Amino acid sequence: MTQDDSTRCSVLLIDDESFSEDIITHGLKACAPHTLRYASQPSMAVELAREIGATVVLVDLRMPEIDGLEVTRRLRADKDTEHIPVIVLSSEDDPDVKAKAFAVGANDYLVKWPDPRELVARVRYHSDAFIARRQRDDAFVSLRLSQEQLAASQSALFQAQKMEAIGQLTGGVAHDFNNVLQIIGGNLQLLKLVGDLNDAGRARVDVALSGVERGAKLSSHLLAFARRQPLQSVVINPGHLLREMDDMMRRVLGPRARVVTEIEHRLGSTLVDPNQLNNVLLNLAINARDAMAGSGTLTIRAANVGPDSEMLPPSLPAGRYVLIEVADTGGGMPPEVLERAFEPFFTTKPTGQGTGLGLSMAYGFVKQSGGEIVLKSEAGKGTSVRIYLPRSEGEPDLVEDIAVAPLLGGPETILVVEDEEDVRSATCGILSALGYRVLEAPDAAAAKAIVESGEQIDLVFSDVIMPGPVSSLQLGEVVRERLPKAQILYTSGYAEGVLAHEGKMEANVNLLQKPYHPDALSARIRHLLRRRSA
Fold this sequence. Notes:
It catalyses: ATP + protein L-histidine = ADP + protein N-phospho-L-histidine. By secondary structure, the protein is of the alpha/beta class. The chain is 45% helix and 19% strand.
């Protein structure tokens, strides 16, 4: 026996004769270490055995009202005491009586009063066996818990690997898809500008362009999921964004729904792309509206979460975060749906009523922003989406607004650098139609030669990912060195290569995402050229 309480022999003696305590105490002197608890009330046996953590119960056979056989039955009937060894003490050395004792669950039978050596041997044997059984059961419980934790970890790893693989595939497809959309959209827009279309032809072109815009939105969602969306992150106070969105949320949900907004006083700031965050919250509101069938309560909470907060998920390192939660009272999700909720194109809505990209876009955006998104849902009990974004100590930035105005051109010279010939041709056609003097280059090396030739260039409009020995960033360095007043505007359906870290662009990088609309291209170019003049 060790001194550990978990292996100490704990004896409960039940006997209506008090002198039995002295006899048993004397007999167990050689049983070290042990504790002995005596009780004269057999009705207290189960409660006392549980209280002292008994490893052996000694019970007298003959007692008034409740005898030793009944005590044994009660011990065996209780889940906390059913396995504690019971030794019946009796002055009757009768085989029939012994048989009855064993029949009700006794482990041993001693005739009063046993030799101390026999008493100690029996008590230690049964106590050790019980402790060994308890340790075995604890080990099995621990093993089962470890297996469950391992299975959960393996499942989480598999899910993460699956999402990463889907993300890589999705990002590559979206990148190529954006170039295709740019070719289609650019040529359609050029056709509208210089094609001298009649009303019927113009209507057809507009229908086709609306399809391009739908494809661009789809591609944007795919890139967000794949964490390839270029984020133009600034320090914002999300509380201001939520207050500004309040009216929009109410219009999205409709008159029968109730919107509750709870924003913690002195909510912290975070470094995030406000437009993307706006899109995520709007998509979550639309999902909630559909889940609640137009009625119910949508609760939007924003709070500061510290490193010791119980609300901080284990997947996030300890730190300070801003929590934004969107919770609804809708129908909720069963486990099999919850498991796949973040997968792109997975939806439970009828065909034509959803793309299945809302939650996947939110997942990619939050991960790319250095945060975590936690989805909790239960069928019939609603859904909660919690977004954790790293808290920033910086002051909120003033975001420069670039309004999209009607197509505007100018006399300036623009160098277009694009390896996709069809994209380059359409873009140069649009800029030429707007009155710009347009130079073109199929890659950054050719563009570098034009810049170094002494051409007067006001703005370089360059794709990001191009083949050749010179990268778009190296081209940008040459432009800044040779033409310090020239503006640089990048474009990409992917933006990889311009990004500083984890998809977040440097503050001095101007990017126009593909597929771009001529209105957006015109507005961005005029904005940069006005800044150049200033």
